[in-house]
């Protein structure tokens, strides 16, 4: 089962990433100014996943990635994959476990391991 991991960027914006059950990041979000906006984006994605559309792309370096949109609005961008098969496995992981994934909040602690 995957998980949504909320954290803060160095510029103070909030973001989330969806990670696989093995801990690999599948996609990450754009930045959000407020924490509740980030939480709302996760909930919107989880509840509207059946209506989501995936567009597949190939980067200039030859790697593959996807963009997930809901209601014609770009929601997230995936990490780069070395093959189209791995890209499809990433999409399958999102479809299988994102709707029921838990949310892990690491926005409060800047230093997790002292």
Automatic annotation (TrEMBL):
Annotated DUF1508 domain ranges read 11-52
Q: What InterPro entries does this protein map onto?
A: DUF1508, UPF0339_domain, YegP-like_sf
Q: Spell out the protein name for this chain.
A: DUF1508 domain-containing protein
Superkingdom field: Bacteria
Transmembrane residue ranges: none
């Amino acid at each position: 089962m995957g998980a949504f991991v909320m954290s803060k960027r160095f510029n103070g914006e909030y973001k989330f990433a969806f990670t696989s059950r093995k801990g690999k990041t599948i996609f990450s979000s754009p930045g959000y100014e407020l924490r509740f906006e980030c939480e709302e984006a996760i909930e919107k994605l989880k509840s509207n996943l059946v209506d989501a559309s995936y567009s597949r792309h190939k980067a200039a370096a030859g790697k593959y990635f996807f963009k997930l949109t809901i209601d014609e609005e770009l929601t997230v961008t995936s990490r780069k994959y070395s093959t189209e098969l791995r890209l499809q496995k990433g999409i399958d992981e999102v479809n299988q476990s994102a709707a029921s994934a838990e949310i892990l909040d690491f926005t409060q602690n800047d230093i997790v391991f002292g």
